[in-house]
Amino acid sequence: MISVPISARINGIEWSGEVEPRLLLSDFLRSEVGLTGTHVGCEHGVCGACTVQLDGEPVRACLMFAVQIDRHEVTTVEGLAATVPGEAISVEQLHPVQRALHEAHGLQCGFCTPGILMTAEAFLRESPARSRDEIREAVSGHLCRCTGYHNIVEGVARAAERLAAGESVTEGEGEP
Description:
Blueprint: E1 4-10, E2 13-19, H1 25-32, E3 51-54, E4 57-60, E5 73-75, H2 96-103, H3 113-126, H4 132-138, H5 150-164
Helix pairs in contact: 2-5
């Protein structure tokens, strides 16, 4: 077995180690780093469940090898909230997009949710002043079998309003 040394910043924490060149980023994050919020669905890049951010841009972790993150920054859904790894989290500590989806009931089983959150956060970071049609287009690359997408769009729109008003990751109103 051949291993390749890599180092990356994952959710703000430096990580160094060796990985097999063929190890997928999704499997690396789940099994080597212990970040199980990155879900593995179709393993073909179609469903979006494995979406993470590489240097701030959404990517499908099932289509990348772990060696490709060498000297880059990766953010997973666990890195969105203003928390300390391993500590309990409150609704108020959630990222505005996480909190808004929670409040709008924009999730059911939750399998697709991490990928949608990673896409929505990057989308709203570019410009939080977004229409519902733009939001629908942004999340159109994610498959959700439980919802009709309406509450997902409403949640992202709620987050867009809050971010446009200047709400940050560490402040919020909690439940309405």
